[in-house]
């Protein structure tokens, strides 16, 4: 996650003291666990009820609790990104002079997140006796769903980096998990907001799946949303000026 430096300027989190291999493992395991929670709770929900509203409620509730725990547990190790757009946003801000993830971290975080997401989907399918890999047939290519992904991702980036500007990152586990839970309901796309998770969910033809043909559009809109989120952070959380200035 991100934080402010001593001068109140925006900066990303200094690289954790953990060895790089530990950070990569945390990102892989954390993303795998996140996708297993999303996919597994979706499968469980559809087995327990035919009511789509209750299915989404169960799916979103499990995701809120699971994501909060994962951020709390693995945040001190890797920053608990579990999301390529968060990693890229931190790298972009680090290029502007703040501390944060370098190109080397990006080069290993992103593959770890994608591999973890695919592994998490396969694990969830295995736990519920589903085919280990079956491409999703859930088409999500409609324009209003793509707009939902822009909104969901922009809000996520605004929240994370806004918390950093406001020196409130200690609330990230609760705040980020709560936002994702809310975005399940107020966005038309049910808030994927994560390219790695999007790829992973293409591997399961269950409640949480996304058809492979819809993946590129979702990822493209997530990247747009990340750019919008960073622009909003710069606009809303401008550094204050002293009276002398």
Write a structural description:
- The chain is mainly alpha-helical.
- 66% of the residues lie in helices and 2% in strands.
- The chain contains eight helices and two strands; from the N terminus they run E-E-H-H-H-H-H-H-H-H.
- A hairpin with a 5-residue loop joins strand 1 and strand 2.
- It is globular, with a radius of gyration of 18 Å.
- The protein starts with a strand and ends in a 9-residue tail after the last helix.
- The N terminus is likely disordered.
State the main characteristics.
245 residues, mainly alpha, 66% helix, 2% strand, globular, disordered N terminus
Beta-strand residue fraction: under 5%
Helix/strand structural class: mainly alpha
Q: Please give the order of strands in the largest beta sheet.
A: 1-2
Shape: globular
Relative helix content: 55-70%
Biggest beta-sheet profile: 2 strands, antiparallel
The number of E-state strands comes to 2
> How would you describe the oligomerization state of the chains in this entry?
single chain
- Please give the radius of gyration in angstroms: 18 Å
The topology string of helices and strands comes to EEHHHHHHHH
